[in-house]
Amino acid sequence: MSSFTSKFADELIANAAYIGTPGKGILAADESTGTIGKRLSSINVENNETNRRNLRELLFTTPGSLPCLSGVILFEETLYQKSSNGTPFVEILKEGGVLPGIKVDKGTVELAGTNGETTTQGLDGLGERCKKYYEAGARFAKWRAVLKIDENEPSELAIHENAYGLARYAVICQENGLVPIVEPEILVDGSHDIHKCAAVTERVLAACYKALSDHHVLLEGTLLKPNMVTPGSESAKVAPEVIAEHTVRALQRTVPAAVPAIVFLSGGQSEEEATRNLNAMNQLKTKKPWSLSFSFGRALQQSTLKTWGGKEENVKKAQEAFLVRCKANSEATLGVYKGDAQLGDGAAESLHVKDYKY
Amino acid sequence: MSCFKSKFADELIANAAYIGSPGKGILAADESTGTIGKRFASINVENVESNRRALRELLFTTPGALQFISGIILFEETLYQKTASGKLFVDVMKEAKVLPGIKVDKGTVELAGTNGETTTIGLDGLGERCKKYYEAGARFAKWRAVLKIGANEPSELAIHENAYGLARYAVICQENGLVPIVEPEILVDGSHDIEKCAYVTERVLAACYKALNDHHVILEGTLLKPNMVTPGSDCKSKAKPEVIAEHTVRALQRTVPAAVPAVVFLSGGQSEEQATVNLNAINQLKGKKPWSLTFSYGRALQQSTLKAWGGKEENVEKAQKAFLARAKANSEASVGGYKGDANLGEGASESLHVKDYKY
């Protein structure tokens, strides 16, 4: 096998497969302190540790939500936090059958000589950090690489650097028992059409899987977190079925069957859009040798955040909003979403932020 | 899409899918004049055009055989030959719903500075030749790249050159209406174990699909013709069909995108029976297999037929029965339904391994 033999191989394979369980998906709750600050300020809530803890507790203790989730991605701070009654969050998740995950990258920096393209940093000492996170209960990791579409972008340099950074991160994770989520996000920003997005997505994913092969990564113990294939944010919208067709075709052309699950990012899509698009993909009749699920951040939390507004008395209502989105996306992974989720305040609101950094 | 827009796109996709029809596979009858000469020598038959024609007629007109065959790869000479009664071979095939294919590479040459590694030639004027072949009735093509396993082989250079040669060939074919069979054969020669073969196969296939993507090839309009994953010919431990199946399918799961409609295995030096039994085990394996898994056999379909024929008119019927038996057996194997009861013709269990095989 071109993969190395990790002593964690069986566990990695089992955990990656579990995350792709039909009816389940990932809650991306790994907003960095800076990013969560922006969310909190949009609902007039102060960005302090207590409030950050309260928000996550609200999400993780929502009755009925954990069965819809197979994993939750956490920011480092959250990995060590506890609920108000003193139970570590990782325990709450584990008891709920949810694998804790951890964001391990250290953000992006610009690539000199390019037109604002970036690479992701975080490889230094990554092995040690992964070991620590595993001891704290984490079982998967996430690293976000970012590319953009423009006249001369993404460049060959940007694709190569990001693909090989992802591959190096992935194998270091596997050496330390964490299933790596490979996330090569191609930003939705731009006026390009869906065909351009498809062409770029296929090129980027092909580069990623070549890099993963070169780095001896065990594909059965990884997950892919790609963008869906859509028109650019400044282009006319298309129907979910069209997004589904282009997205699944791009994956068929690039993602080996050994990968157990693909967990889409929501990008700037509204809660409802993200759910409908995921649903359309799971309804498509064609070869799909990986499960197709969600790893949503904004698209799972938007209406919940608005409903909460930082107030204790709103917790129950906010939890209801969260449960609605969890269930809707759980159904979407099975292709049975009927579009009848109670649209919470903001569920149809676009969550697109130009040149999104988090 | 990252693939180019061929005016032949729909046809390529349909033909590639057809070749992978359950219960069918490819007869590789594209032995060059030199190579068929070696086969003939082994049965004491003179290597002249009429004998070459007679052999292919024997195969293509075997009653009941073509239903198990979705495509036949031909050498250029054969593309223009006719049956004794004057009917073009390509017409015989078309009537039986068999797609004619054409070998388009011009053999291998050594890569300077390597330890006997090679690259395949044939790109010059390939577009023109493909156009001609399409007009003559061909609908798919084949190009054989060759790699070997050694202490330091395959080298990164050999892998890169062969992968990118295959990709360039593939897109030129698609520009001209021919479905390219992508064949990166890793020779079975050597004393390495099955794990080593798996490692190399995965590395080579990953490089091939990166190259195909770089060259904008429409994967839905291609076929893959790989080696199975087996121990080397000199390896002390042999592997059971189930073990070969497991390693082979895993290697494909790790490298071959689902967009590829079919994987058509080469038989390498395997005997007729081994090649069938292994294909059968591959199709019985439970696991993700988003491409059909069938055969593209040359020696492993013709060995006992050749022996039974011996170049003699009076043996044609006997030889055709032998061919039918293998064609049927492999058809069953392509759906995991082979019971191991094919009448073993003379030579069916004989290893067909020739060290450092060139053809």
TrEMBL record, chain A:
GO terms for cellular component: mitochondrion. It comes from the Eukaryota. It is found in: Cytoplasm. Pfam families: Glycolytic. Gene3D superfamilies: Aldolase class I. Its EC number is 4.1.2.13. This is Fructose-bisphosphate aldolase. It comes from Arabis alpina (Alpine rock-cress).
TrEMBL record, chain B:
PROSITE patterns: ALDOLASE_CLASS_I. It catalyses: beta-D-fructose 1,6-bisphosphate = D-glyceraldehyde 3-phosphate + dihydroxyacetone phosphate. Keywords: Cytoplasm, Glutathionylation, Glycolysis, Lyase, S-nitrosylation, Schiff base. GO terms for biological process: glycolytic process. InterPro entries: Aldolase_I_AS (IPR029768), Aldolase_TIM (IPR013785), FBA_I (IPR000741). GO terms for molecular function: fructose-bisphosphate aldolase activity; mRNA binding. Pathway: Carbohydrate degradation; glycolysis; D-glyceraldehyde 3-phosphate and glycerone phosphate from D-glucose: step 4/4. Its main location: cytoplasm. One of its GO terms (cellular component) is cytoplasm. Its EC number is 4.1.2.13. It is found in: Cytoplasm. Pfam families: Glycolytic (PF00274). Belongs to the class I fructose-bisphosphate aldolase family. NCBIfam families: FrucBisAld_I (NF033379). This is Fructose-bisphosphate aldolase. It comes from Arabis alpina.
